[in-house]
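Limitations

Structures in this collection are predictions, not experimental determinations, and the ligand pose is part of the prediction. Treat each record accordingly. The example that follows, with adenosine-5'-diphosphate as the small molecule, is included so readers can see exactly what is and is not provided: the inputs are given verbatim, and the output is the predicted complex.
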Amino acid sequence: MSEPSTPLMRQYTAIKQKYPQALLFFRLGDFYEMFFEDAVLAARELQITLTSRNKEKGVAVPMCGVPYHAADNYIARLIQKGYKVAICEQMEDPRVAKKLVRREVTRVVTPGTASDSHLLSPRENNFLVSACRSDDHIGLACVDLSTGEFRATEISGDDREAKLAEELSHLGAREMLFPAARPVPGQSDARLVPMGGEAVPLPLGRPGVRSPGPSPEGSGQQGGLWGAGRGTDGLTRTPLEDWVFGYDYALRLLTEHFRVHSLDGFGLAGREQAIAASGALLHYLKETQQGSLGHLDRIVFYERQQWMVLDSVTVRNLELTEPVFQGDADATLLAVLDRTATGMGARLLKSRLLRPSLDRAAIEASLDAVEEMLRESMSRSRIAKECAAVYDMERLLSRVTLGTATPRDLASLRNSMERLPAIRVLMGGLQSALWRDVWERMDELADVHALLAKALVDAPPINLSEGGAIREGYHAELDELRGLSKSGKQTIAAMEARERTATGIQSLKIKYNDVFGYYIEVSRANYSLVPERYERKQTLVNAERFTTPELKEYERKVLDAEERMLGIEQTLFVELRAAVAGESSRIRGTAAAVAEADVLITFASLAAEANYCRPRFTDNGELEIRAGRHPVLERLGELQQGERFVPNDLYMDSASERILIITGPNMGGKSTYLRQAALIAIMAQMGSFVPATSARLPLFDRIFTRIGASDSLARGRSTFMVEMTETAVILNTVGKNSLVILDEIGRGTATFDGLAIAWAVVEHLESRSGAKALFATHYHELTELAEHLSGVKNRHMAVKESGSDIVFLRRVEPGAADRSYGIEVARLAGLPRDVIERAREVLTYHEQSEHRVSNSLSPAPEGPQAMQFTLFTPSNQALAERIAQINVDNLKPLDALNILAELKKQVEEG
Ligand code: ADP
Ligand code: MG
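Predicted complex:
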């Protein structure tokens, strides 16, 4: 591109060069303008008109703009689409600037660093993550800039890439930083490049140059997790120069930021990849955010093993946070549980839901606190009410430290603090350890509150520039100036009266507007009466506007005073904000305590309203749920007409009741029963009471699910492939403390191989994993497994037959269902009578031939059926076990012969 010819465009180009990755919002008067490629892209994405600037000799520069007062909305839309926006402001008043107005980028907003409330959903975290890898580890760090949460971990093992993907989906991360695979041309010594210049120029190129990378939309595919752009998962991937992920650099950056000598205190000792990822994250924040990052006052190293692992398939299958069918927004566990009063509480609850604890002591502490609060129904509702008046202190605080908080934000913070003493008093009498702890951690912040109360008016404006944020009595000069401008009204009234008498024009008025300042308005009819000394200012259709030297003088005084007042307010406000920022770690601790109280109260209220019980934990793997209910179904009231939810018991242990095969008619309640067990386990480990009359459970380290033939065709894989992939994950990772929920596996293929796979899966689970499993199936044949495998038992959903009708009892009973009642269910569904009758005929015919098939599934001595026998029975197991016992090294020849004879006999007897 040729050198731009105007100073303005030269300024633009210089600034844009530092922010190649972002759309540059370039402030020009009342607009943010975009030029070149940025303009083309923004016009397309925002549906705004693309124009061009022709002042550049010979070249038309594409441009488009948005009014500054509406910019937030446009920025939000771009961020949502995964773009980054650099906001470039005028740093001096254009009216006083001698030459070109000085401009600077004051902020870069990216999907992962958004902290303004209109860019965020109040009840969810907004995570920016950073990942890097060595030969055997992946380091992962995540931060929610809007709340100050900063964590890091390391992932290892052969499936670490998959685990990373899982963790990202868990976090709901918006943006991921990672080391660019290739160096950036011309920037080999990237350290010398100024701030903002280090990054690989993706996805937006330099102005005038065709962008080297694709647009953020839909480009994340080819590179997988480690490729730039934005994938279908809504995660924006931001490559950074390699060195940003250097361990030494990270160490220095982090120790300086946290003002510590080493990171060991955060649990990061020896965690080089976690440190490197955290360092890059901090680097990026420093680069994109202008304000202080003081609210990031600590980093926490976490082990994924601290929590029950719920992979993304399970989160989806169990409808923990999102319904499988869009539209049933209430049909999730989160929707049922989330009665929190604050955004902070809501976020904490959601993170507990996705990461139930494995820490028995912590869970019991939570349960103790819930139990105590359950008894205290009075303080419960009172505290909840007080909490509801607390704003999102975490997010307000982060805007305070970032320097973007408005006067109204500070007032919200102040009003929130006002509630703290009452909350603490209400909590004062509580005895359990966790409540004592929350009480202690909740700082009343009386000093900060007093300061804010004194400084800010009750309802300050959003914009400081509107004036009037600072309370009277806080600053003497400000008060004096305000007095002057108040008395100004009288001065003007007096002047107006004087001029009316002097000119004899009774309708004469002195008015003010932003463009023309003060003026005397005379209607056209009275024009002849206007004296010489009036200077004309403006002509309207029916009136003329004038000024006088006296009025001009007055105007100057007023404007000066106003400017001065605004200046003072500005200074005072910035001081105030800094003072509050100085207390950020106290405020943050308090906010966290409020969040915790909010969640505990929510659990207690739920327990009271929905009649939940306190779960107990077992050490021997035993699980016993009495009268368990499905927490979502029972609350939704969407049961079949006239039906009430039928509670069911569940018993499992580590020996003979490890795997339950559940049969019964379609619509009998199998799937519900399975999910209910998983949901109860999750709620228990969240530290909540559960929907049952009593519940004893082991701590599960992982819950796996494979539910239904969910249709992933949209994602380009066949249903069966998806099903098998998910099943493979389960079988490869399941352990003895896991709970496996299998609902109708093997359905996506022909009956026989589907059955074969299901059969083998159960055998594998029984013999290899030690896990507990609940398996709902329409393959009746599977119930035979209970005869062959000691850990497998049958259950069925009871139905009552009356004539040709069936009634679902929704009751789980021992033993296998005697048949599948498909035709009865079809009849209930309204299939025409002739079809039903014909189906009965066909079924009778087939049942006779099936008799032959089912014989083939039972042990048979020889012939072609023997092959099927080996397919479906672990017949060789006893034999194999016996052979395994033989110690060949000190076996005498005679003994060997005897054993051989014994084995032969065993085989012959089957
Ligand atoms: P299946 O998996 O056996 O086909 P589902 O578990 O999907 O059956 O249940 C079908 C419907 O039956 C549910 O949508 C619900 O309306 C009802 N249902 C299931 N379990 C119960 C129960 N325990 N009490 C009352 N209604 C139930
Ligand atoms: Mg089902």
